[in-house]
Amino acid sequence: MSDPISANHVVGIHYTLRDDKKEVLDSSEGQDPLLYLHGHSQIVPGLENALAGKKVGEKLSVSITPADGYGEYDPKLTSVVERNQFPNQAQLEVGALFEFSNAKGHPVVVRVAELKGDSVTVDANHPLAGQNLHFEVEIVSLRAATQSELEHGHAHDGDGHHH
Ligand code: ZN
């Protein structure tokens, strides 16, 4: 397909993500390309906007501010909880991820930021909040989304379903 990328298409990309110090944070190298459904906020807004209108085979370098990436770091998203609130206390360590339900019953992933006695500081900011993101991207595939992908709002692999 040589059409440009637009909403409701499944796009395959290879990418490398670096921070301001050029450290690699994430990459699809050595793995299958990342498939995402364009126009459904599956990837950060700055990258999705940069990919719109591009074609298979194109490569691009995109630098994204936190506002168009994983958001600004919000100190209000940290809180201190008692150690005994954790189901798996053995796994309590700085950097560990836990899923909690918020007041509305939605799952929220928090990262353990500090351990002090019986107090655990957890941080619900995305680990990359507040960071500039520098992507190197190559577009490797493009196809129309299937009906079930449109209903689910995300891309499916050819051979099945990852949820
Ligand atoms: Zn699905």
How would you summarize what this structure contains?
The chain has 163 residues and is mainly beta. It is built from two helices and nine strands, in the order E-E-E-H-E-E-E-E-E-E-H.
Please explain how this structure is put together.
The chain has helices at residues 45-51, 147-152, and strands at 9-18, 24-27, 34-37, 59-64, 78-82, 97-101, 107-116, 119-123, 133-144. It is mainly beta. It folds into 2 domains: 9-69 and 128-152, Chitinase A, domain 3, CATH 3.10.50.40; 75-123, Thrombin, subunit H, CATH 2.40.10.
Reading the helices and strands in chain order gives EEEHEEEEEEH
Q: Work out the count of structural domains.
A: 2
Give the CA-based shape.
elongated
Please give the count of helices. 2
CATH topology of the largest domain: Chitinase A, domain 3
Q: Which ligands accompany this protein? A: zinc ion
Radius of gyration: 19 Å
**CATH class type of the largest domain:** Alpha Beta
- Number of strand elements: 9
N-end to C-end Cα span: 27 Å
CATH architecture of the largest domain: Roll
Pick out its properties.
163 residues, mainly beta, Chitinase A, domain 3
SSE arrangement:
Blueprint lengths: L8 E10 L5 E4 L6 E4 L7 H7 L7 E6 L13 E5 L14 E5 L5 E10 L2 E5 L9 E12 L2 H6 L11
The site of zinc ion has 5 residues, from loops.
